[in-house]
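S1.2 Input.
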Amino acid sequence: MSRWNKTIIIGATILLPQQALCAGFQLNVQSTAGLGRASAGDAVIADNASSMARNPASMALFNETALSAGIVSITSMVEVKDALYTREFYSQGALVDTSVQSANYDDAGGNAIAPNIYLIVPINDKFAWGISAYTNFGTKTQYSDDYIASEYGGLSKVESYNLGLSASYRMSEHFSIGAGLDIIASTGKLNRSLQPTDTTLLTIDATGWGLGFNLGAVYELDDNNRFGLSYRYSPEMETEGQVDYAGYVAESGPIDDTVLIPLPDMVEFSGFHHLENTKIALHYSIQWIGWSVFESLDAETSGTINHYQWQDGWHYAIGTTYYLNNTWTLRAGYLYDTSAQDQLTSISVPDSDRQFFSTGFTYQLTPNSNMDFGFTYVLGEDVSVVESKPMLPIDIASGTYLATNIKASSHANAIMVGLQYNRTF
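S1.3 Output.
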């Protein structure tokens, strides 16, 4: 790529398994039981070992060793509709040609699998420790290589993995606390190009890791009523790899660089209430997600790649569990999730307020083991997208420049299905 072509300034999208299912690129796939109740009450229910992912203090509610292992299948459906893509050619500062084309796209989503595994080991009636592996963040959108608006679409993918070590301590009959350390590994790929010439505008292939932590508390009113509160600190990920960015003019071609991806802190409050003398329990959660830290995507050498200016998000969940008999437990839930995007929207990371409609069950295999099934349908909203690129030099000698923009409506839905095996020892 020539030095002059490198002066083309093209914004990127974030290096982010599938289109994110909560605001930003947060995933709620830590537990299949939680999947069946829209994550309502997950920070305090403690019906299997996966609860430690949401609140380490919940481990104090276990009096025997517990193991949980599961997978969640994610199918995302991303559509760009009513899309008009405009190109304007300028010569010597004068507009000489304009073209407008449809840029509709109905298959930017796909399929992915998110596995998880948890182990909780009580030491005595006060202490417990646990280890976990799961994911909190990830997303993927992919447009075809010949998509006409590939400077806005292309490939955006991140896979993140948490390896956690946690401990809990029961301070009294009613109050317990917990803490955990998270080792977070991530890989990301991103491609942007200018069609139909297939000119590379941005290529990133990077990996990295960081350290986070989480804190939690559980307060038990009695055996049937309890509350949980948790806080998770997420680091700014430093991912290292090859970056080829047209906006960096000091060198041509890919360079070794470090891409900085800020991740949000999270605070969650949950409640659980087993209605006395009934087979019914009610549970709920409120979670704050600090997405306002994600103002831009930056690289240490290449500079600012794109601006985002996201806002903090919230989700509100309510659910119910019906203990049918000793073999079957039924559950359902509803979650409302607010968008992380504010004024700036994009087709590469479709985001909107979302509704989660969930149901699931537990089947008791033996007195010490069971299987969970969970199903969630995620319903997004239409979001208006307006993106533009500045004057791009096509031929410096003749003073020919290109400006592009896209106006569209994006919409993202998803289906999640999970299976999980649980056992106590």
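S1.4 Remarks. The first helix runs from residue 32 to 35.
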